[in-house]
Write a structure and sequence with these properties.
Pfam families: dCache_1, HAMP, HATPase_c, His_kinase. InterPro entries: Bact_2-comp_sensor_kinase, dCache_1, HAMP_dom, HATPase_C_sf, HATPase_dom, His_kinase_dom, Sig_transdc_His_kin-like_C, Sig_transdc_His_kin_internal. Its main location: membrane. It is a multi-pass membrane protein. The protein is of the alpha+beta class. The protein contains 15 helices and 17 strands. It has two domains: 259 residues, Beta-Lactamase; 217 residues, 2-Layer Sandwich (Heat Shock Protein 90), CATH 3.30.565.10. A hairpin with a 3-residue loop joins strand 16 and strand 17. The protein starts with a helix and ends in an 8-residue tail after the last strand.
Length: 623
């Protein structure tokens, strides 16, 4: 449900997007998705191929290495069987057993026995050492041969070098291993020992009993094979695979490992040993936060297992390079495709954007625009129809403008015919009364003021004047009224200097003031206060004309505002008030637009306020 709503929202946003964005998104999807899919599949197949090839190569290498190790061990086993065919060696071993047996009897106090001669011992040693040299010459290499009689006396060739210092301890271990054997060779795991040259050495050993012709146990042979014979092959393998190798016997004892830290240690409890349940195979294992690929195989002869662990990072190093190259090529291709897509999307939508700009100019009132038709495709046909439409609209607007102009002129003349007779009647009445009451210079002053008023009011009512001139006209008007009603009216002006030069149409204040005086004058008050204030709002000039006269009740106020805003069409029978306000309101609406006009507020007994807004910048509309 949620995904469905989200999909609908995304679809709606996509539908509302600009055309060039839609085309760009479509182009990018058509290029990006296939390239990304191809790159991902290629990288995955290459990685799988690298892993399979590594496992196959490493398995073959391990198998070949174990075959060579088995061959070497088989050679050691054959060397250990040589004493069985050397009658001379067996004779010397028998003599050694006799020598030490007699010596033991003499030592224990048997006086009937004659002690062996030291010359006999020297002869025995030389004879056995000579046979040991012969055995060493059969297969030269890093190995040492030890011959023991049945009393544990050891013989070896000093020429071999690297002889064990703990030879007696080693003999006891070997003796225990072959005690229950019947002459077969036993392979013993890696041991560490200190050589006669004061150096450490690691070897694995082949031990076997030696029997005489009568199958009597006359001694034992031990052949130490240095692990260097394995090390060379392991080093080559590690260099190729960038991994680490180790060999364990059936009991989990380490025969060899690359860093030699686990030599002769038992690791049967390690996870990698537990995982290697088959004869050969591979598996992944994570150790210390790093992933490793383990590959192993077993020797059918010795049951030894050889492992190689390759870090996954090393395994995929080449594939990472291929992946990076693939992604770089993909991104470059996508980038080029995006540039091409941007070019084509903007090229395809450029005529549409040009038409939209022309439409905005038409919306602002400029009907002189023309769309350049260069092609005959759909956009060219649309542009041709657009030009015909603009031409037709321009003609219609010109016709409407002419009709509106004629209508406004007629309305202005009608309004002027309403205002001038009304004003002339009141003014002449004031002059008549003053002439009857005052036979002095007041009449001349009143006539002078009347002349100024007539000169200001007679003329084109569409003419614009400054707000300061309108205020001057109001001062003359109040002065004239004060001749009729001596000192009855006070005029207060509150207009900032910056608004005194504001341009407006003529005679918008006099009808309002006149209406306030003749409909709001309170005979109980010695003076009537008239105030004209102007201030600046955001984008507007607000003008307020207020008085402290009688005011009007709520019913009269609602009716008057209804007449001004057009919701009330006619005055009730017998009522004719507010002609001046209607005239001013209609003139403002005709000149500035229907959004402007008068609004009246009043409180009975506290006076009336007439407020109207004019545009701060001239924005005349013809609604």
């Amino acid at each position: 449900m949620f995904l469905g709503r989200r999909f609908i929202q995304w679809g709606s946003k996509f539908s509302d997007s600009p055309m060039e964005r839609k085309l760009l998104i479509v182009f990018i999807l058509l290029v990006t998705l296939p390239l990304t899919f191809i790159g991902a599949v290629s990288y995955r197949n290459y990685s799988d191929s690298i892993e399979q090839n590594t496992v196959s190569y490493s398995t073959n290498s391990l198998t070949s290495m174990m075959e060579r190790v088995d061959d070497y061990i088989e050679d050691m086993v054959r060397i250990s069987s040589v004493p069985a065919y050397q009658e001379e060696l067996k004779t010397y071993l028998s003599r050694s057993n006799t020598y030490y047996e007699q010596r033991s009897q003499v030592t224990n106090g048997d006086e009937s026995m004659i002690g062996p001669s030291d010359l006999d011992l020297l002869s025995i040693q030389r004879g056995i050492q000579g046979n040991i040299l012969f055995i060493n010459n059969i297969k030269r290499g890093e190995n040492s041969v030890y011959i023991f009689d049945k009393f544990g006396n050891g013989y070896y060739s000093p020429e071999a070098g690297a002889i064990r210092l703990d030879i007696q301890d080693s003999y006891k271990l070997w003796k225990a291993k072959v005690e229950n054997s019947s002459g077969e060779a036993l392979l013993l795991s890696t041991q560490k020992y200190m050589t006669s040259l004061k150096s450490e050495r690691y070897v694995f050993t082949i031990v076997r009993k030696i029997y005489d012709t009568a199958l009597n146990d006359i001694g034992m042979i031990a052949v130490d094979a240095n692990i260097s014979v394995i090390e060379d092959q392991i080093t080559k393998l590690d260099k190729v695979t960038h991994g680490k190798s180790f060999i364990i016997d059936a009991g989990g004892n380490v025969i060899y490992n690359s860093d030699k830290k686990l030599l002769a240690a038992n690791i049967s409890d390690r996870q990698m040993v537990k995982e290697a349940t088959d004869k050969n195979g591979s598996f992944y294992l994570t150790e210390d936060g790093e992933k490793y690929l383990y590959i192993y195989t077993s020797s059918p002869n010795t049951d030894w297992k050889v492992f190689i662990s390759i870090p996954a990072g090393e395994l995929t190093r080449n594939s990472v390079v291929i992946r990076n190259v693939t992604w770089i090529a993909t991104f470059l291709t996508i980038g080029i495709a995006m540039l091409i897509s941007i070019f084509f999307s903007f090229a395809l939508t450029k005529p549409l954007r040009a038409m939209m700009r022309l439409m905005r100019r038409v919306q602002e009132g400029d009907f002189s625009v023309q769309f350049p038709v260069k092609r005959r495709d759909e956009i060219g046909q649309l542009g041709s129809q657009f030009n015909h439409m603009i031409l037709r609209i321009d003609h219609l607007i010109q016709d409407i403008y002419l009709m509106q102009t004629k209508k406004k002129k007629a309305e202005m003349h009608a309004l002027q015919s309403q205002i001038n007779p009304h004003f002339m009647y009141n003014t002449l009445e004031a002059i008549r009364m003053s002439a009857e009451l005052n036979d002095d210079m007041n009449t001349a002053d009143m006539l002078s003021i009347l002349g100024r008023l007539l000169r200001y009011s007679i003329g084109d009512l569409q003419e614009e004047v400054t707000l300061n001139k309108e205020i001057g006209h109001m001062r003359s008007f109040i002065d004239l009224l004060n001749y009729r009603y001596p000192d009855r009216f006070e005029l207060f002006i509150d207009v900032p200097e910056e608004l005194k030069h504001y341009s407006t149409i003529k005679l918008i204040l006099q009808p309002i003031v006149e209406n306030s005086i003749y409909h709001g004058m309170d005979d109980n008050k010695p003076k009537m206060r008239i105030a004209i204030a102007a201030d600046q709002l955001k984008g507007f000039v607000r003008i307020r004309v207020s008085d402290d006269g009688l005011g009007m009740n709520e019913e009269t106020l609602d009716r008057l505002n209804g007449i001004l805003n057009g919701s009330v069409q006619h005055q009730p029978d017998g009522q004719r008030g507010g002609i001046g306000l209607r005239n001013v309101n209609e003139r403002i609406m005709l000149h500035y637009g229907s959004a402007y006009g008068l609004k009246v507020s009043s409180i009975p007994g506290n006076g009336t306020v007439v407020t109207f807004l004019l545009p701060l910048e001239e924005e005349i509309s013809y609604d």
